[in-house]
């Protein structure tokens, strides 16, 4: 404890944010919870036939794509986040340690932020193109036959089309998240007192030790932030899939078993049917299922990292 | 004799260290360059496409470089610029970005300070509650907020019932604060050692003064990062602006960008679209280049401690 | 402090929620006093009745006391939007000159069809809507669930303000009369169909003359494929491309008299004729007679048609000009789409209609109707068609002098040459136009279309007809 409690003062500092959040975040959130328990809610008429405890949740779980969505969400989350965080951390520390071209490279790593979504989609379509794509060309250099990543299914390899499309999606997802993570880590590195590094230099501490004993611990709040928000973001993945595969959420020619739909995809699907009886309640229910999964995961994550991170 | 031995041994060691350092530096640059290329490909693609003639864009496999004589700079960029009233949209976007970013930065600084430094009952629980709001897909908020904004009188589909001020309120108020950035800045504030705060307390510095004189300057790279990210958010927003504006004149750049090319059947004018995208993001790039040096300036706290 | 705040928040929530949702435990019934024009509250219309049904009070005069404001939501970008604005300006001037009434029309683009539907659904929920919206029939069917659109029959049959429906293409009327009760809750506005382009040079080199009078059959395609498909200089990788897999599926089902869907929302694809059609098509995919744009990983086949990868291509009349090589490397012919069975001809008609929202005054409704009438007037629908590649919605539009002159363009150097050729092909198809049955609800007609597209692509990718049908049924919730 740093000092005695200062409730009134704290709430004054919090007031502007909390007021806005109450109206535009908490209220819609509670509303979503409320809607999830309505029976036969008619969005357009604003009326419902009463309440149901689990009805909407059961409808969501019974959707044909629910199992596929759970699987895809899990794969995207647990593969892309660890890789993206580690790569971003390495790039940031490397970028922070150099003098020449630092500004130039930093600008380059920022560019994904200002790149048009359509251009990104086109570029990735080119990278993964089965005939003349960059990736297959490079694989050709080391003697690997072209692989059919995201293009039309070809006879004989239908069973693996999900894996290949998922691989392409993961690369795309990791690419898309790098700019933000690098910016956060860099700003965090800049807030670390230079004195620590000066002291380390005088003591001639090896670089690896500097990294593990100074950089990582002092950056731990940022690492915690990026890890938690990245996991939340990955659990909510959807835009990237639309960006890569369009509305059908799968490579062309694939059937629904190879769909890359996620839980948020289910939410969107229900929202797109706002005029149907109960659809908005199902969207709310799907959101709450996702919410509970993320919450449980985040609480575990916080509990585990509490020992190591100054949280 | 002994001394000489030591000296030469030291020289060998030093040279070894030097060589190691050079190898290490080379590896770092190699690593950064590889990832830079990986990150750069789509951006290069955007610039390249914006310079191609449409027949060239259609080619498959696409050409990765184009000759100087084939560059269609003027035609694509002029056509793109004329496809929508970008001046109007840019002005709106800058206004909305300025208001919502200023709002976000202030509300975020205050809230993060309370969470990172002040001690109050239920702090951790409230903070967790805030984080949980990020776990609901954003689209679930849109419908309710749309109704809220309509009830507050800031939006009506009937154009005569929405003034410019109404539109500004509808476009900015929901984005005047952000849990995402409160969390971010709180973490930066947490990096600042407690001793600084205790020392300031001993000196009789008030919390308000401590926040503005010490915490904000130290956290300025983060605050500038938040500014850029938030402005970027306004730049790429299009669903909400389209939903809560009754007139074309109130909309933002990405609306212009998307709608200018929405009614083409049978073909997409990628070259003009990319040119338009580059035109509208140029102000952002310039802003970034300008603010970048402030992110990377770093802070030495030796002056503060004394 | 925290307690007070949480109390305040609780108060806000309950107040807000109570205002949003009414809970009614009673069996669900439409409140006919509140929504007198809901299909469940009115009797089905008798198509032979000459009397107006009298559901909507139609003013005999336009009130001139105050300016009348109309909000018009559409989906058109800069170029089409400019022509629309021109026609609207002409209308407001006419209202001022002829009736002395000031009409203010705010025409605002909502982007694409998905956004206009979302924005309108949200507006209906919030209780303030635009006056006129452009949209597909399944959009309107959805709005109808919120009692948000009015039937137009009273306006259509009004002696002063009405129109002669016999002047409109029958398929357009059928499409707009498929809603519950048979009333017209929307009116045909911006319509197109599909036509076929072919590489004239290559066909001529092989001594084949492709007829332009609409007599091409799928059997002809088989014959031509024998000579045209291959790797020679006057051959193509595939014979014919279909830009829209969904239209290809739906249209072929009709030509084969198989089942697709109906206006009640039943999914009827699991039947022998549909499966037989898919099997037949799959054989043509395998021997490279038929192709879809995914063969080249494209959304449209126009690039590959120009590149010579495919000798023929079926696509929207609105997109004709993208199939023309800009360097004039070969001449393009335009013909009606091939038919499987000349006794069961079918061509898709597509494009949005226009509807009046119920949240409006009698004066607004009347002026809105007059605007719709103005936009579909013979000369205006013809202008719109010539400018955009859509088709006139009424016969008098086709027969108007300007449109006839346009149809007769045969000079290859005229910039409208290909648009005119497409329009001629389209005109030959108007008598056997078919539309997608529209339905809203948990499964919409748009969902069915999306699945038809996926099914066709999967078929192209090598899945069997039964596999793609089973997957379609599963996704559309039919077991």
Explain what this protein looks like in three dimensions.
The complex is a heterotrimer of chains A (311), B (306) and C (479). Chain A is mostly helical and 311 residues long. Chain A has a two-stranded antiparallel sheet. Chain A has helices at residues 7-35, 55-61, 66-97, 102-110, 117-127, 134-141, 161-190, 194-202, 207-235, 239-245, 263-271, 279-306, and strands at residues 38-39, 47-48, 50-51. Chain A has a domain at 66-260: MetI-like fold (Orthogonal Bundle). Chain A has 12 helices and 3 strands. The radius of gyration of chain A is 23 Å and the shape is flat. Chain B is mainly alpha-helical and 306 residues long. Chain B has 2 domains: 2-76, no CATH class; 81-305, MetI-like (MetI-like fold, Orthogonal Bundle). Chain B is built from 15 helices and no strands. Chain C has 18 helices and 13 strands. With 479 residues, chain C is an alpha/beta fold. The model of chain C has no long low-confidence stretch (mean pLDDT 89). In chain C, helix 2 (78-99) runs antiparallel to helix 13 and helix 9 packs across helix 17. In chain C, the strands form 2 sheets. In chain C, strands 6, 7, 8, 9, 10, 11 and 13 form a 7-stranded mixed β-sheet that branches. A 5-stranded mixed β-sheet of chain C has the order 3-2-4-12-5, with helices on both faces. Classes of the chains: A mainly alpha (311), B mainly alpha (306), C alpha/beta (479). At the A-C interface, helix 1, strand 2 and strand 3 of A face helix 1, strand 1, helix 3, helix 4 and helix 17 of C.
List keywords for this structure.
heterotrimer, B: 306 residues, mainly alpha, MetI-like fold, 72% helix, flat, C: 479 residues, alpha/beta, D-Maltodextrin-Binding Protein, domain 2, 2 domains, 7-stranded mixed sheet, 42% helix
The CATH homologous superfamily of the largest domain in chain C is called Periplasmic binding protein-like II
Counting DSSP H or I runs of 4 or more residues, the number of helices of chain C is 18
Helix content of chain B: over 70%
Please summarize the sheet with the most strands of chain B.
none
Just name the CATH architecture of the largest domain in chain C: 3-Layer(aba) Sandwich
Low-confidence stretches of chain C: none
Number of strands of chain B: 0
Mean pLDDT of chain B: 84
Overall geometric form of chain B: flat
Please give the most extensive interface between any two protein chains, plus how many residues each contributes: A-B, 106 and 99 residues
Radius of gyration of chain B: 26 Å
Termini separation of chain B: 48 Å
Under CATH, the topology of the largest domain in chain C can be stated as D-Maltodextrin-Binding Protein, domain 2
Number of strand segments of chain C: 13
- CA-CA gap between termini of chain C: 56 Å
CATH topology of the largest domain in chain B: MetI-like fold
Weakly predicted, low-confidence segments of chain B? 299-306
Q: Using the coordinates above, name the CATH class of the largest domain in chain B.
A: Mainly Alpha
Which CATH class of the largest domain in chain C is shown? Alpha Beta
**Assembly classification:** heterotrimer
Can you write the helix and strand succession of chain B as a string? HHHHHHHHHHHHHHH
């Amino acid at each position: 404890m740093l000092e005695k409690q200062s409730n009134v003062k704290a709430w004054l500092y919090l007031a502007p944010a909390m007021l806005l959040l109450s109206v535009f975040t908490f209220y819609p959130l509670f509303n979503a919870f409320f809607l999830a328990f309505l029976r036969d809610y008619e969005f357009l008429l604003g009326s419902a036939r009463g309440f149901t405890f689990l009805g909407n949740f059961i409808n969501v779980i019974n959707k044909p794509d629910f199992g596929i969505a759970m699987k895809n969400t899990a794969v995207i989350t647990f593969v892309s986040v660890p890789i993206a965080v580690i790569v971003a951390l390495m790039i940031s520390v490397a970028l922070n340690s150099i003098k020449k071209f630092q500004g130039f490279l930093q600008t380059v790593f920022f560019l994904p932020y200002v790149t048009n979504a359509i251009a990104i989609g086109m570029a990735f379509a080119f990278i993964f193109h089965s005939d003349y794509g960059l990736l297959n060309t490079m694989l050709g250099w080391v003697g690997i036959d072209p692989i059919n990543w995201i293009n039309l299914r070809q006879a004989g390899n239908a069973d693996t089309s999900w894996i290949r499309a998922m691989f392409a999606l993961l690369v795309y997802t990791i690419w898309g998240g790098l700019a933000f993570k690098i910016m956060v880590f860099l700003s965090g590195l800049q807030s670390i007192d230079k004195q620590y590094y000066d002291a380390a230099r005088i003591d001639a501490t090896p670089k690896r030790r500097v990294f593990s004993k100074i950089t990582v611990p002092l950056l731990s709040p940022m690492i915690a932030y990026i890890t938690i928000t990245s996991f939340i973001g990955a659990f909510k993945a959807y835009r990237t899939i639309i960006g890569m595969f369009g509305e059908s959420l799968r490579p062309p020619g694939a059937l629904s078993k190879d769909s890359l739909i996620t839980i948020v995809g289910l939410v969107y699907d229900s929202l797109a049917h706002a005029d149907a009886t109960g659809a908005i309640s199902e969207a709310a229910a799907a959101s709450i299922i996702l919410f509970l999964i993320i919450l449980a995961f985040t609480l575990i994550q916080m509990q585990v990292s509490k020992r190591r991170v100054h949280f | 004799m002994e001394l000489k031995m030591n000296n030469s041994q030291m020289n060998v060691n030093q040279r070894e260290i030097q060589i190691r350092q050079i190898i290490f530096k080379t590896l770092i640059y190699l690593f950064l360059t590889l990832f830079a290329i990986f990150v750069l490909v789509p951006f290069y693609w955007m610039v390249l496409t914006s310079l191609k003639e449409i027949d060239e864009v259609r080619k498959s496999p696409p050409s990765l470089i184009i000759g100087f004589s084939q560059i269609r700079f003027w035609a694509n960029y002029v056509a793109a610029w004329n496809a929508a009233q970008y001046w109007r949209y840019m002005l709106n976007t800058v206004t909305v970005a300025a208001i919502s970013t200023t709002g976000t930065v202030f509300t975020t600084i205050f809230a993060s300070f309370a969470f990172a430094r002040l001690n109050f009952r239920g702090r951790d629980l409230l903070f967790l509650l805030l984080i949980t709001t990020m776990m609901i897909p954003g689209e679930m908020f849109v419908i309710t907020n749309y109704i809220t904004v309509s009830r507050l009188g800031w939006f009506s589909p009937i154009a005569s019932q929405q003034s410019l001020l109404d539109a500004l309120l509808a476009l900015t108020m929901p984005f005047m604060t952000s849990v995402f950035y409160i969390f971010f800045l709180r973490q930066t504030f947490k990096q600042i050692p407690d001793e600084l705060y205790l020392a300031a307390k001993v000196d009789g510095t008030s919390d308000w003064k401590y926040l503005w004189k010490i915490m904000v300057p130290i956290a300025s790279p983060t605050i500038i990062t938040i500014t850029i990210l938030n402005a970027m958010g306004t730049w790429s927003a299009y669903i909400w602006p389209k939903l809560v504006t009754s007139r074309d004149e109130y909309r933002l750049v990405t609306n212009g960008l998307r709608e200018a090319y929405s009614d083409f059947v049978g073909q997409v004018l990628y070259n003009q679209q990319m040119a338009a995208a580059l035109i509208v993001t140029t102000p952002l790039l310039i802003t970034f280049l300008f603010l970048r040096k402030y992110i990377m300036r770093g802070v030495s706290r030796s002056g503060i401690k004394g | 402090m925290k307690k007070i705040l949480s109390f305040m928040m609780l108060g806000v929530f309950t107040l807000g929620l109570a205002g949003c949702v009414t809970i009614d435990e009673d069996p669900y019934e439409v409140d006919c006093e509140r929504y007198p024009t809901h299909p469940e509250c009115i009797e089905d219309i008798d198509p032979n009745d000459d009397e107006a049904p009298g559901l909507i009070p139609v003013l005999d005069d336009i009130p001139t006391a105050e300016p009348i404001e109309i909000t018009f939501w559409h989906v058109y970008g800069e170029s089409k939007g400019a022509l629309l604005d021109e026609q609207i300006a002409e209308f407001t001037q006419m209202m001022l000159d002829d009736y002395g009434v000031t009409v203010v029309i705010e025409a605002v683009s909502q982007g694409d069809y998905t956004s206009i539907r979302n924005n309108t659904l949200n507006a209906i929920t919030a209780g303030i809507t635009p006056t006129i919206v452009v949209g597909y029939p399944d959009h309107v069917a959805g709005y109808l669930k919120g009692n948000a659109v009015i039937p137009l029959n009273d306006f259509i049959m009004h002696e002063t303000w009405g129109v002669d429906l016999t002047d409109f293409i029958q398929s357009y009327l059928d499409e707009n009369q498929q809603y519950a009760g048979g009333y017209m809750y929307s009116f045909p506005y911006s319509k197109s169909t599909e036509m076929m382009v072919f590489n004239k040079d290559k066909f001529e080199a092989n001594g084949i003359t492709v007829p332009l009078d609409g007599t091409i059959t799928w059997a002809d395609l088989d014959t031509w494929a024998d000579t045209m498909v291959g790797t020679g200089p006057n051959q193509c990788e595939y014979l014919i491309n279909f830009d829209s897999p969904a239209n290809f599926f739906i249209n072929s089902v009709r030509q084969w008299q198989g089942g697709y869907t109906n206006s009640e929302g039943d999914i009827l694809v699991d039947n022998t004729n549909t499966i037989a059609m898919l099997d037949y098509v799959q054989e043509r995919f395998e021997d490279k007679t038929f192709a879809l744009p995914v063969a080249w990983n494209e959304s449209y086949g126009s690039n590959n048609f120009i590149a010579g990868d495919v000798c023929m291509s079926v696509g929207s009349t609105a997109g004709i000009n993208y199939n023309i090589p800009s360097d004039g490397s070969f001449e393009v012919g335009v013909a009606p789409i091939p038919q499987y069975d000349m006794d069961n001809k079918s061509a898709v008609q597509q494009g949005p209609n226009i509807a009046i929202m119920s949240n409006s005054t009698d004066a607004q409704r009347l002026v809105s109707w007059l605007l719709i009438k103005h936009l579909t007037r013979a000369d205006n629908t013809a202008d719109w068609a010539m400018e955009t590649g859509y088709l006139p919605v009424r016969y008098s539009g086709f027969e108007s002098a300007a449109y006839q002159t346009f149809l007769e363009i045969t000079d290859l150097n005229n910039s409208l040459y290909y648009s005119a050729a497409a329009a001629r092909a389209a005109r030959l198809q108007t008598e056997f136009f078919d539309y997608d049955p529209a339905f809203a609800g948990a499964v919409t007609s748009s969902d069915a279309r999306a699945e038809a597209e996926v099914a066709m692509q999967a078929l192209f990718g090598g899945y069997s007809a039964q596999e793609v049908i089973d997957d379609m049924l599963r996704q559309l919730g039919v077991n």
